[in-house]
Specification:
Elements lengths: L11 E2 L1 H4 L1 E8 L2 H4 L4 E12 L2 E10 L2 E10 L8 E3 L5 H4 L2 E7 L5 E6 L8 E7 L7 H8 L7 H6 L1 E2 L1
Antiparallel strand pairs: 1-7, 2-3, 2-9, 2-10, 3-4, 4-5, 6-7, 7-8, 8-9
Amino acid sequence: MTDNLTTTTGGRATIFDMLGRWHLVATTNGYFTFPQRVDRAEFVFEPPANGRIRFTIEFELRGRSRTIRASTPARVSEDGNYRWRGRGALLLASRSGWSFAVTSDGAVAALRNPGSMVAEAGTLIVRRDEAAPAGVRRRISEEYPRLGLTRQELTELAWR
């Protein structure tokens, strides 16, 4: 593991590229695509503090607002992924490696998770708080390789 959190290459992004509020616009993750399950989702990444990355997920589940606050050690593995781990009994089962990639203008990002024993694999496509929703689909279709998506994954996205 390394603490190098500041290098961005190609479409790959670091936690510093992800700081701020992001809105879910498309996904292949079953938790967010299950019919009528999640109506809205927003992700807020805070600057690393005391060696930890803090983030909040605010979402509406069947009409009820929910918030998940979490943090994880601010370490990047050799493959460039951020490692999230649960606590207690979920320590081993919930280990997953998230990777981030952004469009050339930094307005749209892909959060990719290969999955774990308790987390489904999938990709979340999010837009910055200030990015206009109207151009997001076009931007994604033009820059999907930069986001680490294949043509097939692009066609499998469930749009919000």
